[in-house]
Amino acid sequence: MRVASPMSKPSASMQHTDHCDVRELLPLSPRGLNSSLDPLGHLLPHAGGHQSEKERPKRTGADYRALWKTAIHQQILLLRMEKENQRLEEASRDELHIRKMKLDYQEVSPCAKEAQALWEKKLTAPGRTTVPQDMEEMFRTVCQGIPKSRRGEVWLLLCQQYRLRHRQPQRPQASETSYQDLLKQLTAQQHAILVDLGRTFPTHQYFSAQLGAGQLSLYNLLKAYSLLDTEVGYCQGISFVAGVLLLHMSEEQAFDMLKFLMYDLGIRRQYRPDMVSLQIQMYQLSRLLHDYHRDLYNHFEEHEICPSLYAAPWFLTLFASQFPLGFVSRIFDFVLVQGTEVIFKVALCLLSSQEREIVECDSFESIVDYLKTTLPTLTHAQMEQTITKVMEMDISKQLQAYEVEYHVLQDEMFEAGPPPDDSERLDKLEKTNVQLKKQNMDLLEKLQAARQKIQTLETNVESFLSRESKLKHMIRSLEQERAAYQRTVERMRSCLPSDALTDVEMTQIKTGPNGKAKTPAKKL
Question: What is the mean pLDDT of residues 445-464?
Answer without folding.
Answer: 88
